[in-house]
Amino acid sequence: PRIPSYNLRAADDSIQENWGKYTNLASWNWRLMKTIMTVCHVYDKEENYIPFDRLAPEESQP
Question: Is the Cβ–Cβ distance between 52 and 41 less than 8 Å?
């Protein structure tokens, strides 16, 4: 489900309260950003999950 940006803090609080022992928190840094961009994937309705580098800029949405 999508979470509007104005509800992100409340959503994060709920996740930490209910699932905190199963989550890993990380401080943002450039190494983390590089990992996210090279390892993480984006959901695609036709192909399930695809890497960021296969996602064309015109297809990306906030």
Answer: yes
Q: How many whole angstroms separate alpha carbon 54 and alpha carbon 6? A: 29
The 10s digit of each residue's pLDDT in 12-29 is 999 999 999 999 889 999
Q: What is the DSSP string of the chain?
A: ----GGGHHHHHHHHHHHHGGG-------HHHHHHHHHH-EEEETTTEEEEGGGS-GGG---
Kindly state the tokens that stand for 49.
């999950």
For residue 41, how many other CB atoms are within 10 A of its CB?
Answer: 13
pTM over 0.70: no
C-alpha dist (Å) from residue 28 to 20, 34, 46? 18, 11, 31
